[in-house]
Design a protein that fits this description.
Number of strands: 18
Number of helices: 11
CATH class of the largest domain: Alpha Beta
Oligomer: single chain
Number of domains: 2
Helix content: 25-40%
CATH topology of the largest domain: FAD/NAD(P)-binding domain
Radius of gyration: 21 Å
Largest sheet: 8 strands, mixed
Strand content: 15-25%
Structural class: alpha/beta
Shape: globular
Bound molecules: flavin-adenine dinucleotide
Mean pLDDT: 94
CATH superfamily of the largest domain: FAD/NAD(P)-binding domain
CATH architecture of the largest domain: 3-Layer(bba) Sandwich
Order of helices and strands: HEHEEHHEHEHEEHEEEEEHEEEHEEEHH
Length: 439
């Protein structure tokens, strides 16, 4: 449905339906001045704004659409490890053991940050699942599970628990493609739209201003400040935080150009399943789960007994490509949960994720733009990472912490792709290869 000025605001997601009417902030009209202007009203931008408002700065959050319109209102709701495509052993190779440990601890802190907020704010976000179950999509992954569990215990101080196929079935986790499991003891599931709305309410309560339907179309230096141009106005600010993630306009500012490929993830949610349907499939667990494919599937039984099933791997945003992505997602679901083939999909939607050539996120200053900072590139897992990193980027902007206080894995600005016009082709090639390898 179009918004007040003709901008479509509905995603068609289950999350929107679950919250009913969504509060809409005014759009920015005319000119305004703030200490800090934040671009993007998702977890990262709102977390930054909250921190800044609590520190006494005047702050605005500008969103091209509205709070949670980006990935923060349309994700799978897995509050878990993430932010990178590198495994722990890759991190150790690239950054050394101490930095890899620092980054893993940061991810745990990020999950705890969300949990603490929910408790402190008494936010009901339909929370469930103690930790996350990784599921071996073929028997050969079981050996990798054992190696991973041993590595995590030796170097990172925690040990995920291994489950055989039979033990999984006893826990209500069964399917023809699940050959064993590795339970990671961190993380939980939530309704992402309820969380992002609760976060925005806190920003407003602390005096931060949020503007919806306010796209920033240019950022220019104005003496020792920055001038942000919008269709119906402008904002002057001493500091700017970029938090557009997969929805960022890659020319605002120019620095972003050619640095992120256009990647997507899609979700289907079924109608509520009956007890006998759950029993027929053998899936009754409320644990959130993902398989071991590189182009992974993520899934969970929602508190109201609907099943949420997510797929990675979309590139093109044409109607035809999007239809094909949804059809592929549903076909994967039918294959992995054959007893539910007859169960109708009631909601399906997709969204942009932000990947980089470096495969790591960035939280730090934008090179050659004094006073402009970026917190983005969560590689498809940003509920926890964007929440904590929003606070960290605010602390950096305020001079309360230094870049060296953050893990090295998130301190390097992401590189531009060579021949950026070929990014879709690169990604298509990578997805073909991963799809083949994942079989
Ligand atoms: C389908 C899907 C499933 C996912 N599942 C999970 C999951 O289960 N667990 C998990 O941890 N992560 C998941 N993710 C990723 C996670 O949702 C994101 O990493 C996270 O929400 C990013 O938050 P953010 O605040 O950085 O950006 P976003 O929430 O994407 O917000 C960016 C905002 O910036 C605005 N914006 C951009 N450019 C401008 C501009 N020039 N002017 C004004 N506004 C602008 C956009 O309108 C948008 O609202 C998923 C993502 C998708 C798409």
């Amino acid at each position: 449905m179009p918004g007040k000025n003709g901008v479509p605001l509905d995603i068609g997601s289950y999350w929107e339906a679950s919250v009913g009417e969504i509060f809409e902030d005014p759009s920015l009209m005319g000119s305004a001045q703030f200490d800090v202007a934040v671009i993007g009203a998702g977890y990262a931008g709102l977390s930054a704004a909250l921190r800044l408002a609590e520190a006494g700065s005047s702050v605005c959050v500008l969103d091209a659409r509205r709070v949670g319109w980006g990935a923060s209102g349309r994700n799978g709701g897995f509050c878990c490890f993430g932010g990178t495509k590198l495994s722990e052993s890759d991190l150790m190779k690239r950054f050394g053991l101490a930095e890899a440990q620092k980054f893993v601890l940061y991810q745990i802190e990020a999950i705890e940050k969300v949990a603490k907020r929910l408790d402190a704010w008494k936010l009901d976000v339909d929370r469930h699942s103690k930790g996350e179950m990784m599921l071996a999509h073929r028997p050969s992954e079981l050996e990798a599970f054992q190696q991973e569990a041993a590595l995590l215990k030796k170097y990172f101080g925690y040990q995920p628990k291994l489950y055989s196929k039979a033990e999984l079935a006893e826990r209500g986790i069964a399917g023809p493609e699940f050959h064993g499991g590795l339970h990671v003891p961190f993380g939980f599931a939530l309704n992402p739209m309820k969380y992002v709305q609760g976060l925005a309410a806190k920003v407003r309560e602390k005096g931060g201003r949020i503007f919806s339907r306010s796209p920033v179309v240019a950022i220019e230096r104005d003496a020792n400040r920055w001038s942000l141009a919008l269709p119906d106005g402008s904002v002057i600010a001493r500091k700017v935080i970029l938090a557009g993630n997969g929805y960022a306009d890659e020319n605002v500012p120019d620095w972003l150009h050619g640095r992120t490929p256009p990647a997507m993830s899609s979700v289907v949610v079924t109608r509520p399943l009956t007890e006998s349907e759950l029993a027929a499939q053998g899936w009754t667990s409320d644990l959130m789960a993902a398989d071991t494919r590189t182009l992974l599937h993520y899934f969970r039984l929602l508190p109201d007994r609907r099943f949420l099933f997510g797929t990675r791997g979309g590139i093109f945003e044409t109607e035809q490509a999007l239809d094909a992505m949804q059809r592929r997602g549903r076909a994967d679901f039918d294959r992995m949960f054959p007893e539910w083939r007859h169960v109708e999909t009631e909601y399906s939607w997709y969204g942009h994720v932000c990947l980089t050539r470096n495969l790591t996120p960035y939280v730090g200053p934008v090179p050659d733009m004094e006073g402009v900072f970026a917190a983005m590139a969560w590689h498809g897992s940003g509920i926890a990472m964007a929440s904590l990193s929003g606070e960290k980027i605010a602390d950096l902007a305020l001079g309360k912490i230094k870049q060296a206080d953050l893990p090295a894995a998130m301190s390097r600005p992401f590189d531009r792709f060579p021949f950026p016009a070929l990014r879709q082709a690169y990604l298509q090639g990578a997805y073909l290869w991963y799809g083949f390898r994942d079989r």
